[in-house]
Design a protein that fits this description.
The structure holds two protein chains of two kinds. By secondary structure, chain A is an alpha/beta fold. Chain A has seven helices and ten strands. Chain A has a domain at about 5-95 and about 165-230: P-loop containing nucleotide triphosphate hydrolases (Rossmann fold), CATH 3.40.50. In chain A, the strands form two sheets. Chain A has a six-stranded mixed β-sheet, sandwiched between helices. Chain A has a four-stranded antiparallel β-sheet with strand order 2-1-4-5, covered by helices on one side. In chain B, about 55% of the residues lie in helices and about 20% in strands. Chain B has a six-stranded mixed β-barrel with strand order 2-3-8-5-7-6. Chain B is elongated. The chains are: A alpha/beta, B alpha+beta.
């Protein structure tokens, strides 16, 4: 029996004012479990990224609840939410958002430094995580010297460096060719996913659907609730 | 927290073009501010040179006197009246006036002649060569070896010259703490010889120099001298009076102030704009920090650290550059009047702190407005 990592109930989110007001999420409820690699798929504008932001404590919903390991995250104040994100969530952004002025190792060390680890230890740990993603030899290079696939792996190393229980990946293959994208997701499933970690991936890249343990489809801010097999 | 500052440092310093622009902006601004103020301090310092060199506690003068140089003669009874005031330990006459010296080659050179009280020689300079008692010798003068010394053709002991058609002879070479403002050599002699050699109006005492028995007596001494119709100022008050005169009645102060404000505005514009651009360009990075769990106060600290580090580095370089150029200028122009003191350093520091505060204020506002959700939305 898989343990629930995230539970969302009746989540509603509106954007804009007056006539421009649009509903991005319409009464969305879902559960994501530890040991699961859950995909949220759907066309652009369907509300995937908004949902991901609400689930990860970045965007406050207008109504509904989000619980992580049984605790309602939207009852936390802004500092507690920041701590929640720092300790529980690892992010892999669509455009990686690596810091071009830092070395690869320093980029990976950022979450550790935010956790108040001293600089030397953080860099040592970062090199260890770079080793996991196969980029130990690139530790001293700036991210701009790396290929797209390598940058994505650095972003993954940074996301897992803080040992988060939940890994959030936003369009992880959007900037990569098919083979590299599949290689990255395969790597994540084989090396990063484990019994005590839940991975949420937002994507509309059907080439990587095969790696999901479950797929939820979104359309017009609603969760269609499709199972993996149906979408494939 | 140390790690966060190191992160902020690397993000700042590794953006070399922006960092260089920031440093150049602040360095240039500090250089201009300090240079302007050092120049003004140098002028004020030299304008008060006689007061600093003589070192008397109380200066009695005509109330119309604004600077040491524009003396107005006082009658002899003022000296006696000051001596008779209760609390005055002693009082001596002091002469300061201008004269023309005819040099051996036939050319004329303007000089300042200081006449010291014959009995006490109060306010005498420190001698480098010769003996002070030689000042009582016939036609004796002591020359100050300052930056103007060479204008008297580098005289030696025994060198003769003419002062207003009287024979003069150098009996000593002295040094003083501060050079005068007006670019003329200084000769010391006795009070009565100064009166004999230089044309004078009816009243001859330039200043009466007085020493109180006790510092607590000074206010009472000043009141009694005021009752005589004259003005008594302590050393610091006289320097302040001269400073006020140069600040507000010569236009020098206003011009220096305008230049200083312009330097500040230039520094603020360059640094503020560059720092703001730096933060704008890194806004998505700050958003990523927020998404990853950085708190607002940590981001504020990072920005304040970056602004402070830039400001202090620019401040140090600006001061260093100014000191270097003043030294260089002095090597070529010994008369160059410029003094870096604690006041102009402090003023420049306050200006730099304002530049850093204003720059970081707008940057902090922008960073606090950025939403991590914007990072997801791209």
């Amino acid at each position: 029996m898989l343990q629930p990592a995230i539970q969302a109930t009746g989540v509603v989110k509106w954007f804009g004012e007056g006539e421009a007001r649009t509903q991005a999420l319409r009464d969305v409820s879902l559960s994501a479990n530890f040991g699961e690699m859950l995909y949220i798929v759907g066309p652009s504008g369907s509300g995937k990224t908004t949902l991901l932001s609400v689930l990860s404590g970045i965007l406050r919903p207008d109504s509904g609840t989000v619980s992580v390991e049984g605790a309602d995250i939207w009852s936390l104040n802004s500092d507690q939410l920041a701590d929640f994100r720092l300790h529980k969530i690892g992010f892999v952004f669509q455009d990686y958002h690596l810091f071009p002025r830092l070395t690869t190792a320093e980029n990976v060390a950022v979450p550790l430094i935010l956790k108040r680890m001293n600089w030397g230890d953080a860099i040592k740990q970062a090199v260890h995580y770079l080793d996991i993603v196969g980029l130990k030899g690139r530790a001293e290079l700036p991210p701009v010297k790396l290929s797209g696939g390598e940058q994505q792996r650095v972003a993954i190393a940074r996301a897992i460096a803080g040992q988060p229980e939940i890994l959030i990946m936003d369009e992880p293959t959007a900037s990569l060719d098919g083979e590299t994208g599949q290689g990255i997701v395969r790597f994540v499933k084989q090396n990063i996913l484990n019994e005590s970690r839940c991975i949420l991936i937002v994507t509309h890249d059907s080439r990587i659907y095969d790696f999901a343990t479950r797929i939820l489809k979104m359309a017009d801010g609603r969760l269609a609730g499709a199972e993996k097999r149906e979408i494939l | 927290m140390k790690g966060i500052f190191k992160l902020a440092y690397k993000l700042l310093v590794n953006d070399k073009p922006k960092f260089a622009a920031l440093i150049v902006g602040i360095t240039f601004s500090v250089f201009l501010i300090v240079q302007m103020m050092a120049m003004f301090s140098g002028i004020l310092n030299r304008a008060s040179a006689t007061i600093l060199n003589v070192g008397a506690a109380i200066w009695v003068m005509d109330p119309a006197v604004q600077t040491v140089a524009n003396t107005i003669g006082m009658p002899d009874y003022v000296l006696d009246a000051v001596k008779s005031i209760e609390g005055v330990n002693y009082a001596v006459p002091f002469y300061s006036g201008g004269a023309l010296v005819k040099l051996a080659d036939g050319t004329y050179q303007a000089v300042t002649v200081i006449g010291l009280d014959d009995t006490t020689l109060f306010g005498r300079p420190q001698l480098l060569e010769g003996k002070i008692e030689d000042i009582y010798g016939e036609n004796a003068f002591i020359v100050v070896k300052d930056t103007e010394f060479r204008k008297l053709e580098n005289p030696q002991i025994g060198t003769q010259f003419e002062v207003n058609d009287n024979r003069g002879v150098i009996v000593g070479i002295a040094k003083v703490n501060s050079n005068s403002l007006f670019g003329v050599p200084t000769l010391y002699t006795t009070y009565y010889r100064a009166l004999q050699y230089l044309p004078n109006p009816r009243f001859t005492i330039s200043y009466v120099l007085a020493e109180p028995k006790n510092p607590a007596d000074v206010p009472r001494i000043k009141r009694q001298i005021e009752a005589l119709g004259y003005l008594a100022l302590t050393k610091d008050e006289f320097i302040d009076r001269i400073t006020t005169f140069y600040k507000y009645q010569t236009g020098i102060g206003t011009n220096i102030l305008i230049m200083t404000v312009m330097s500040f505005i230039v520094g603020l514009s360059i640094s503020g704009q560059t720092f703001y651009t730096f933060v704008l360009e890194n806004l998505d990075k700050f958003g990523a920090f927020k998404a990853m769990g950085a708190k607002s106060r940590e981001l504020i600290l990072m920005i304040l650290f970056q602004a402070s580090f830039t400001a202090l580095t620019g401040y140090g370089l600006g001061i260093g550059l100014c000191a270097f150029l003043i030294r260089l200028a002095r090597a070529r122009l010994p008369d160059y009047a410029s003094v870096i003191n604690v006041w102009n350093l402090s003023f420049a520091f306050v200006m730099v702190v304002i530049i850093a505060t204003v720059s970081s204020y707008f940057a902090v506002r922008k960073v606090l407005q950025v939403e991590p959700f914007d990072i997801f939305r791209g």
